[in-house]
Amino acid sequence: MNYELDHIGIAVRSIEEALSFYLEVLKGTLEDRYTSDAPGVEVHVAVVRTNGQTIELLEPTNRNSPIARFIRQKGKGVHHVAYRVDNLEQAILEARDKGIRFLEDTLRTNARGRRLIYINPASTEGTLFELCSYPQE
């Protein structure tokens, strides 16, 4: 299985306030903006690319969203690191065979067609990792 860094998700209180740093200082390009109102997601997303690398700025849409809870508990900052895999189902099976646990309720297809699941941070020394694939490609 190939694992390639896909993006880093960063929790912010306000995308509008955060964007100037990524666009003006880091010279990034705003590639996409969307909102996911799916239960258990509830987030505004801004996708910024800088020199071929992708950052997703994540702003909660309500005070009970996972990103709002993250900001309350840990503050703003890196929420997760995402790795693209060739085949999500196979990657999940291979990881499970090695004792890795997943946050099962996070398995989904996002608003842009990306299939994803989060690894339980208990399996990664506390860091939240996303595995994702792009079936439409």
TrEMBL record:
InterPro entries listed in its UniProt record: Glyas_Bleomycin-R_OHBP_Dase, MeMalonyl-CoA_epimerase, MMCE/EMCE_epimerase, VOC_core
Q: What are the record keywords, sorted?
A: Metal-binding
Classification via SUPFAM superfamilies: Glyoxalase/Bleomycin resistance protein/Dihydroxybiphenyl dioxygenase
TM regions (residue ranges)? none
Q: Where is the VOC domain?
A: 4-134
Answer yes or no on keyword Signal.
Answer: no
What Pfam families does the annotation carry?
Answer: Glyoxalase_4
The entry sums up its family as follows: Belongs to the methylmalonyl-CoA epimerase family.
Q: What PANTHER family does the annotation carry?
A: METHYLMALONYL-COA EPIMERASE, METHYLMALONYL-COA EPIMERASE, MITOCHONDRIAL
Protein name in the entry: VOC family protein
